Amino acid sequence: MALALNGIAAGYVPGVDILRGLSLTAAPGEIVTIIGPNGSGKSTSLKVAAGYLLPHTGTVAIDGEAVQARPIDQRVRKNGIAIVPQSNNVFGALTVAENLDLGGGFLPSAERRRRIEELIEAYPLLGRKRREKAYTLSGGERQILALARALMPSPRYLLLDEPSAGLSPLMLHEVFLAVREIVRKLGIAVLLVEQNAAEALAISDRAYVLVLGQVALEGPAASVLADDQVRQLYLGGAAV
Ligand SMILES: Nc1ncnc2c1ncn2[C@@H]1O[C@H](COP(=O)(O)OP(=O)(O)OP(=O)(O)O)[C@@H](O)[C@H]1O
């Protein structure tokens, strides 16, 4: 049981590969973080995993099934994939409950209502604000709502593209704790792309360092965090 990208080449323009032979895995119960310099292909790798972008070569396997040619809606329905994109990920003009409802679009309505209540119980903050428009939420609250909405169809693989973008250090911490809690409670796999390498690695089990569309380093999050080059390049040389 895992999400596995194998030897992926992919890009946006013919003849220009952004990912160049990328391989990575994420298994249920673990948080796997991808760090790397700007433009190294971190978000692109999530798009390939989700099915927004189809690779030229290589395979994407979910629980052993090859899905690289399968578009995102089918991966969501059939393979338990969910993605929270980088920003603008909630509908401000809709209420908290309506945003959650949208996340379960293809579920029968009774099932959708049940999931909304479950998620509101798991995130009391959402319950308190269930009838408020999402534009009134703080950045961190919005990010929690985006996470909860992605959980509506009970995914097994959750892809998160920079959930800390634009958040204060305190809110960032809250959001990461929520991610850790989701994995602990639900046993799903999280594949996380983050600029905030130190914070992300602190909640992760494993990590990949991506450079120019290839894996430059991989291993347990603690060893990646302790790596000299990683510390110099991404953590400002800070001691851990
Ligand atoms: N929709 C697109 N069309 C064309 N080129 C794109 C598109 N999206 C990304 N790119 C290019 O692909 C490369 C990798 O982008 P990607 O967003 O995957 O990098 P990243 O590692 O996530 O970067 P960052 O840390 O800055 O978010 C960049 O050179 C970017 O300009």
Automatic annotation (TrEMBL):
Keyword Transmembrane annotated: no
GO molecular function: ATP binding; ATP hydrolysis activity; branched-chain amino acid transmembrane transporter activity
Domain ABC transporter: 3-237
Signal peptide: none
Matches recorded under Gene3D superfamilies: P-loop containing nucleotide triphosphate hydrolases
Alphabetically ordered keywords of this record: Amino-acid transport, ATP-binding, Nucleotide-binding, Transport
GO biological process: L-amino acid transport
Source species, domain of life: Bacteria
SMART domains listed in its UniProt record: AAA (SM00382)
UniProt record similarity statement: Belongs to the ABC transporter superfamily.
Protein name listed in UniProt: ABC transporter ATP-binding protein
